[in-house]
Amino acid sequence: MSSLTHIANDIPKSLISAELAQGRKSLNSVWNGVVPGIVLVAMISGVAFSARNVSGFALFSPMILAVVAGMIYSNVLGTPAHAKAGIAFSQRRLLRFAIVLLGFQLTLGQVVSIGAGGVGIVALTLGATFVFTITLGRLIGVDAKLAQLIAAGTSICGASAIVATNIVTDARDEDVTYAVASITLFGTVAMLGFPLLAPVLGLDQHAFGLWAGASIHEVAQVIGAGFQNGTQSGEIATVAKLTRVAMLAPMVIALGLMARRKSSDQTAARPPMPWFVAAFVAVVALNSLVTVPPEVKSAMALATTIMLTMGLAAMGLQADISQLRSRGLRPLALAFSAFLFIGCFSLMLVKLV
Known about the structure:
It is a single chain. By secondary structure, the protein is mostly helical. The protein is 81% helix and 0% strand. α6 (115-140) packs antiparallel against α17 and α8 packs parallel to α13 (248-262). The longest helix is centred in the N-terminal third of the chain and has 39 residues, at 13-51. The protein is globular, with a radius of gyration of 23 Å.
């Protein structure tokens, strides 16, 4: 014990003080660099969740409201410089973890429950819509990265797919915001209008559920439209939509391979299998093999929504409205065309099956 005391006494006090000062400086750097931005993002997300209690806003998910609130804040008040590190953390890290947690909302058994015909309708609609949107975007002169975001949001699962796709495509924040806004607009139109068309088109609850799940953009919008037409319709619509969500992983991998093939520098190209996609697949497999308690699933669903909301609030904080206006109406026309295509194409398949 005395030897340890001698060793401690032999260490210069100035060295200990310098180490402690360096530690405090590093801690303060992390605190001042990341925390203010996270706090700002959390406040805007809280506003988004609270706004859903206001009449008329309950139709929109907190993710969408957070984008709008973030845009209003940044373009009216401006984004503080000291908050940018925390905003970037929310936009990148939290969104990746949220995509992984989406896997807890899906099992392979759910996919099987809608039958081979249902899975085929979902897969064909997704693939055809994605190809149609990319091709039309090229023809009318929409930026390729923005067209990919609109294609992913329309064909797969709205804002979540846009976020996941952007990790591979690396589009500008304004492009992400534009894609989310346009997808929200036409997804809301589908949510409100499709149930009114069910009797006109002669669709029973099973057929309407498949149509809604295969064509409407956001998960929340699918649930809203499906259950508006009946319990059976709502359940089938939800499973069909979650089947589309499961196809997010192969789509992102395919986009990664495309990006790698187009890159002249193969070593600098992004890997075709981002870690969050592999983790998403692993979580789906775990959720399929192990019975996860309902309370745990509920907690995971809430955590997913919160992290997606914070990530999209961060995107809104970095969006410049003037740059959104500079994109013009062509991307909006592309999103509208994709909305019409996915609705008509999936309806045709449902009628045939």
